[in-house]
Amino acid sequence: MDDYDDPAWGPLPVRPAGLRWPLFALTLVFLPLWWVAWVFIAAFFYGVAVVAEVVVLLVPRVENAALRVLDATLGRIPFVPLWCVTPVALVREGDAEWYRRRVEGRVARQTRRVETSGVRREYHRDMELGVHFFRGAGAGYVLRVAGEQGWTLRSMPRSHPRRRLRLRHDGRPRAGSGA
User: Fold this and answer.
1) Among 9, 67, 118, 178, which residue's beta carbon has the most beta carbons within 10 A?
2) What are the CB-based long-range contacts (under 8 Å, 24+) for 104-113?
3) 24 in helix, strand or coil?
4) Which among 47, 172, 162, 69 has a CA at the least distance from the CA of 114?
5) What percent of the chain has pLDDT over 70?
6) Exposed, middle or buried by CB within 10 Å (0-12, 13-18, 19+), for 103?
7) Which of these, 168, 163, 171, lies nearest to 78 by C-alpha position?
8) Interval 70-106: pLDDT, tens
9) Strand residues in the chain grouped as ranges (E)
10) Measured in whole angstroms, how far is the alpha carbon of residue 76 from the centre of its chain?
């Protein structure tokens, strides 16, 4: 298991002021284009899924394979890419406390969702956080906060502390949660 106190799991360095605004300008230009491309890709794969449904009706055993293909394609193309810099991120650059509150709130919300969703609990057990979400707090902080609430790193697909964390909840309510 990785050592979460290792500097690789700590907060990312603050971006230089000269780099923040060009990144934001690139985001303003390329993010809408990215979203248009994402919608076209999604429409294409949902069209393929309709054809796959016909095949599934004829050969029922291919249903899981068709779902895995859809998840493997759209699940790997993020709707908000990791290079994206929002205005809030520019203003909060270097504010570790804001990132900590953001991580704590997200983990708490997702934990409540897992513990109160009843039958549909399985759908909420996975959580993926991009580096833009925990940049100022660090991946180690995310794992400490999430670990206290029943989250662990997923083994497959792998997480990377400088890009993305993929977490999975054990699905059991915590002792003090009241669920």
Assistant:
1) 9
2) 104/145, 106/133, 107/142, 107/145, 107/146, 107/149, 107/151, 108/149, 110/169, 111/149, 111/150, 111/151, 111/169, 111/174, 111/177, 112/177
3) helix
4) 172
5) 79
6) buried
7) 163
8) 677 776 777 777 778 888 888 888 889 999 999 999 9
9) 126-130, 151-153, 164-169
10) 11
Condensed to tens digits (0 to 9), the pLDDT of residues 108-163 reads 999 888 887 666 556 667 888 888 888 889 889 999 999 998 898 887 667 778 88
Amino acid at 37: A
Site of tokens 């998840």: 71
Q: Locate 166 and state its tokens.
A: 């993929």
* Residue 148 CA: distances (Å) to CA of 54, 87, 120, 159, 176: 45, 31, 23, 19, 12
CA separation for the pair 54, 152 (Å, rounded): 38
Question: How many whole angstroms separate alpha carbon 103 and alpha carbon 14?
Answer: 18
pTM of the model: 0.71
Per the listing, tokens 């500097």 go with: 7
Distance between CA atoms of residues 109 and 132, nearest Å: 18
